[in-house]
Amino acid sequence: MCKTTEIQITINKSSLICFLLGGVITAVLFSAIHLNFSLTLDRRWAALRQHVTERALLVPGMGLTPTVPTSNPLTRWALSMPVYSSDTRVLKGEALAALHQAIDAKKNGKKVKALKLFQHALALDPNHADVLNEYGEFLEDEDVVKADHLYTCAVIFNGSHSKALSNLRRTSASVAEIDKQMLDSIDAKHEQFLKISESSRVFERARQEFYYLQVYHTTAIEGNTLTLEQMRSIMETGLAIGGKSILEHNEVLGLELALQYINSTLMQRIGQITVKDILAIHHRVLGHVNPIDAGHVRTSQVFIGGHVPPPSTEIEDLMDEFVEWLNSEEALLLHPVEFAALAHYKLVYIHPFLDGNGRTARLLMNLILMRAGFPPVVVKLSERHTYYETIKMGNLGDLRPFIRFISHSLEDMLDAYIYLDSDPDHSITDVKESEVHVIGPA
Ligand SMILES: *[C@@H]1O[C@H](CO)[C@@H](O)[C@H](O)[C@H]1NC(C)=O
Ligand SMILES: *[C@@H]1O[C@H](CO)[C@@H](O)[C@H](O)[C@H]1NC(C)=O
Ligand SMILES: [Mg+2]
Prior knowledge:
mainly alpha, binds 2-acetamido-2-deoxy-beta-D-glucopyranose, binds magnesium ion, transmembrane helix, transferase, membrane, AMPylase activity
């Protein structure tokens, strides 16, 4: 297995090169890639920005003409989506009234009141460019990243909103810099992480512990009521927990099988991720729970909250397109955490399965991270709200909040490993049972 500490080069690509060419040639090639990499840093950011813009372009009702070819199935689908509409007049009137009150409160220095009124206005009409823009201006001093997101949404809903456009021009550079620092920090911690010996007892224990946490949180997010200790006991002993449903037990067993499949098969294999691989993961996730649907794409329409996923007749094409992207040059140019988060986002957007989409998407995301030499992330039950909110923000056209959310989860995980490794007295029990946050002195 060819290993590189340059995480920006995905294991996928580098191992392919190692596979094709040996020794000396590899060394020469590697330095070429290094050189190429520094040249592609900007392109990487450009690729991400372009992706965000493309997605925004796909959102109908934003007054921009799509420039992407309509032969692309995802585009075709997105264009046929209903225009966002919360535009009943009454709502607009109330939202505008709240907005005016908020602006007054802000002028009079009543910050707490203004904040509540802005939030109220936004809740009444989440798609109103004026509300989004004014709320952004109110938050900008405290939270430029959130302000920039709100300006972005304002522009998505009204492409000629001049104030939002000029605000965005002001904030975008500093926000891009903040995002870049976040990735730089992840890269620095990743280097520290790679220095921890995989055979050390600390590493082994931590990996085992985080394995249980992963199973716990990913099933608990979907409503499983077994506790972490109960799940651990099921996995360790194979014995059932009294008073808990068979279904809940089966969800745990399914997740464990899927993780083992990823570890033993997909992680050992060099090469592309295929639709078959994704179906195989799903097959294991749902196998015990629903053997009929496990490993098969849905054949009917589903509705989830505000998002109407593509019709089932489109799924085959969409999945082919998705997998093509997973193995594309464009995806390889992204930072692994951007790549992993976007893969998750795209899969849940397509929503290929009747059930188990979230669990499969989180497993795929972690497969991508692990292939790039990162530990898997745990999306925590306590962060469920932010998790779904940031996915929704992606549906509106701004994928950065979700990428940031996943990046913070990854950083938490790296912190936990580094904390445990930094001092033999640091114990896994310091890392709170249901949280991965390090609670000891970091
Ligand atoms: C977009 O914003 C501009 C103000 O910058 C406004 O004049 C225009 O009416 C808005 N368009 C829509 C469709 O709301
Ligand atoms: C993953 O696979 C490796 C070797 O293939 C094995 O040593 C390790 O215990 C496995 N980990 C888990 C969590 O199954
Ligand atoms: Mg479900």
